[in-house]
User: Fold this.
Amino acid sequence: MAYLNQAAVIFASLVCFFDLGSARFVAGKCKKPTAVHVNEDNFGGQWFEQKKYDTLREVGDICNFIQVSLVENKSGKQLKLNRTGYDNNKDSYRSKTQYAKHPNETQGAFIFDVGLLNYMTRKNPNFYVIHLEDKFAITYSCVKSGVLKFEQVWILSRDQLPRRRSREMKRLEKIKSDLGINLPLYDERQRYCHPVEIAIDPIKILGDFWEKVYKAESKCAFPC
Assistant:
C-alpha cells in the first residue's frame, strides 16, 4: 500500500509539471555527459532551436528560441533561461522563464528545479551544454522519476536561418552521437515566423520589475 501511495504521489507530480499528452515516458537511467566550459560571453544571448528531441512540455510548436543569461543573485550563480515558441492552437507566442543552479562555474552543468521531483535531482545536474561553438551549441537534459526518465536534446544556432543548414546539422548530429547521445532529432521550423515582439511572459515582466525595485532599494542610504 505504501508503495502504491508513493507511486500516486510521483504520478500526481508529473501531471502537475508535465504535459502528459505530449510527453513520452522512457525507462532507463539519465546519461551524465561531460559539460563544456560556459560563460556569459560564449553562451549568453539568443539561440534558435534547429533540431531537438523533446519529451517534456513544449512552449510552442514552431519558431522556438531561447534567451540565455548567467546571473548572480541571493541564491548564488544561476542560469536564467527564457524559452519562447509559437503555439498554433492559441495563434500566439508563449514564453517561460526558468532558473538553474550553477554549482561549478568551470562547467556548463546546471540544476533546474523540477518542482515535486526536485528531491530526486537537486544534488545532480540535469541540464548540460555538451558542445559549444561560436554559432552552434548542443545541450542535453534529463529528469528522472522512479524508473522513468524525461530527456531533451537541442541543437541551437545563433542565426535563425544558418547558412548551409543541412550540412551543419549533419555535422552536429554526428558530434552528438560521438558524445554518446543517440536520441533521434527532428527539425524545428524557423521559416515564416511571426514577429517575436508579440511574445510576452508576464512572470518575467513582474520579476524584472521587482529586481529593479530591489536594486534601487539596496542603493538607498539608511533610512530609505
